Amino acid sequence: MVEISTSILSVKKEESIKKFYDLELAHTDYYHIDVMDGKFVENNTEEMMNEYSTQIKQISNIPLDVHLMVKDIKSYIEEYVPFLPNIITFHYEACENKEEVFKYINMIKNERIKVGLSIKPDTKVEDIYEFLPFIHMVLIMTVEPGKGGQALIPETLEKVKKLKQYINENDIEIDIEADGGINKETIKDVVDAGVDIAVVGNGIIKTEDYIKTIKELKEIN
Ligand code: DX5
Ligand code: ZN
């Protein structure tokens, strides 16, 4: 059964506490925290995501799935470690070289937090094969990072299939997460491609009944 990580990017401030409670009652598997610095991507959500993470930690034990869309990876790891997230994911494209990728992998691991590595739609999945034995999850962006409510880019699912085949052939224990444009209409293709965790934002937040929506999304197989 696919796990659901609900992106809270489109939650409005005035309704955030109620929405986080509703998501807890609907048994989202994770809260997906989209941290944007206004440099790696145009939007800046750093204040809002810090506030939302604080609120969620006060009302729920459901794990945080932190997605850093930032240039200065080090300082955002330092900012999010105190929230004790389940996983911190950073972007391969934000690193100058492979030494830097390994530096952040080790920095997160040293805090006893799981590590994710994310790639944008135009980045080849082969580019990150060398890191797979050292990380817990690959986050395949199925939209250009930077905002919610975009349409899933179908070609990105070919990358999921290729990655799934590679990790199976090489006996690598790792989760595949997909992020962007996933909803009731697209979730079947996402699951069929081999995704373990689906990030869903507008496909949940904009619906009336979170319990019903998340149940339907999880039941796809
Ligand atoms: C985009 C974010 C995604 C996005 C998902 O940069 O990383 O997590 O918020 O939202 P939807 O599901 O609405 O595309
Ligand atoms: Zn995200």
Short description:
By secondary structure, the chain is of the alpha/beta class.
How would you characterize this protein structure?
- The protein is of the alpha/beta class and 221 residues long.
- The protein is built from eight helices and eight strands, in the order βαβαβαβαββαβαβαα.
- Strands 1-2-3-4-5-6-7-8 form an eight-stranded parallel barrel, surrounded by six helices.
- Strand 2 (30-36), helix 2 and strand 3 form a beta-alpha-beta unit.
- Helix 1 (16-25) packs across helix 2 (46-59).
- It is globular.
- The N and C termini lie close together (6 Å).
- The model has no long low-confidence stretch (mean pLDDT 98).
- The structure holds D-xylitol-5-phosphate and zinc ion.
Largest sheet: 8 strands, parallel, barrel
The main sheet orders its strands as 1-2-3-4-5-6-7-8
Broad structural category: alpha/beta
So what's the overall shape? Answer: globular
Tell me the fraction of residues in β-strands, as a range.
15-25%
Helix content: 25-40%
The count of helical stretches stands at 8
Please write out the topology.
Blueprint (H helix, E strand, L loop, with lengths): L2 E5 L8 H10 L4 E7 L9 H14 L4 E6 L3 H8 L6 E5 L6 H12 L4 E6 L17 E5 L14 H14 L5 E5 L7 H7 L3 E4 L1 H4 L4 H10 L2
Parallel strand pairs: 1-2, 1-8, 2-3, 3-4, 4-5, 5-6, 6-7, 7-8
Bound molecules: D-xylitol-5-phosphate and zinc ion.
